[in-house]
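ASSEMBLY PREDICTION REQUEST
Request ID: AP-0331
Submitted by: J.K., bench scientist
Number of chains: two
Total residues: 528
Priority: normal
Notes: Please return the full assembly, not individual chains.
Input sequences:
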Amino acid sequence: MALKYTKKTINHFLHPQNIGEIKKPDGFAQIGNAVCGDQLDFFLKVEKGKIKDVKFLSFGCASNIATASIMTEKIKGMTVAEAKKYPWQKIVTELGGLPQQKIHCSVMAVQGLKKAIADYEAKQGKAKIPTIKKVTRKAGKKKK
Amino acid sequence: MKVYLDNAATTRVDSRILAKIKPYFTEKYGNASSIHALGQEAFLALEGAKNLVAKAINGDSVNVIFTSGATEANNFIIKGVARANRTEKKNKIIVSAIEHPCVLESARELIKEGFKVEYLPVNREGIIEPEALRRLIDSSTILVSVMAVNNEIGTIQDITTLAKITHEHDAYFHTDAVQAVPYLKLDVKKMGLDFLSLSGHKFYGPKGVGVAYINRQVKIKPLIIGGGQEDGYRSGTYNLPGIMGLAYALELAYQERSAYLKKVKSLRDYLWQKIKKEIPNVAVNGSLKDRTPANLNVMFHSVEGEAILMDLSFKGVYVSTGSACSATDLRGSYVLQAIGLNKNFLNSNIRFSLGRYNTRSEIDYTVKCLADSIKRLRSFSPIK
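STATUS: Completed
Returned structure:
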């Protein structure tokens, strides 16, 4: 099998961090990949604009589990704004690389996190305001 | 403990076979096409190997063509027969939906050349119904190709009936029998087979050698041309150690057939009984009745197949999801799709394929590891 996982990836697969659910989460998202059939559920607890706790559930391959595990480890304690910008490339670097056909797992983990944050923001009633602001700013930049 | 339950992917070379082929590397290393004594010794060995293969499948030794494996044999037969027999009226080939990728990809290449390709569906049990062939076949059909035994779910096809229907329509019949040794008593005459493919490493012989059994009455275009070996059907220096290994392994497989079948069946049944007993929410894919006694393909609800495979691998238990060649492919098994497995279950399957060297204590260990793995992976699955 042409699948070479790093020791760190294997370790996160065998001993995933932040596994489980959070009851009454501040943010929740479910994300799936139609091609490989993988699924991730993310639960967020936010306090004073910071990710106080994050947990996840996985129906996925070893790298699906490992990428979500390391990402949750890294974003715990970040501000929501920071976590929202956490790039998938960072997951790959943190794990010491991923097989080419497994890169999409890191992308899916980040997408799931963003979706959970969006859910949190929507619940806060703040969702629309920052989104519109961002869009206008971008649009403005383009005009220049 | 190391447990190898991936014998449908490849097998360990039998030490008796290894001992028999060693001299062909160092002593009887002549080129079977050379006229001197060393070459002629090799040529005689080659003839002997052809006789052994022919005897095992009740064929004629002149029809035995050695190739680099079954992938080459299938490419050669499917493309070679289609290309050589194409006329204005005949331009169709029929293959089953659950063929090995080397058959499906060969067919796809023919589509690009303007051939019409039709796919035989399988029923929920993984069996091709003769009626399905009757519906698709017509006078424009050149070749029908149906595997004798499926590599993922081990189901056995009624090759004899399918070949008969094919001949009623003046078409030729090919079977990829790679997974059929020694489970089926292959008899090209009784079964009415024009073409058949075999692969040495699936029955305790070496890798890199296969057989294309051909009906010499039928036109076929060679795939590999050059020095004109195998009467021009397949050029390239005869891989004598491989060829001898395949022939001896095939002979041995049928000599020891009944004891072998009894053994793998009792272990396979024991494995399935134990899995059912120890692990909830499991189901077997495909017919348990019409399959080889070495195969077990199981769906483990709410856990992902590759995760199970990896978890087991760290415990020294080697299995596969679907087929080994699809291990790096993300999509769910097309074979399980073809038998109508629910979309939600397509990525939760493990293939166990047993073999000559497995023991009962290995099965005990496997199920113990499996139960732990499934329990762990289910503990954090979002699917309930």
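REVIEWER COMMENTS: The longest helix of chain A spans residues 103-124.
SIGN-OFF: pending second reviewer
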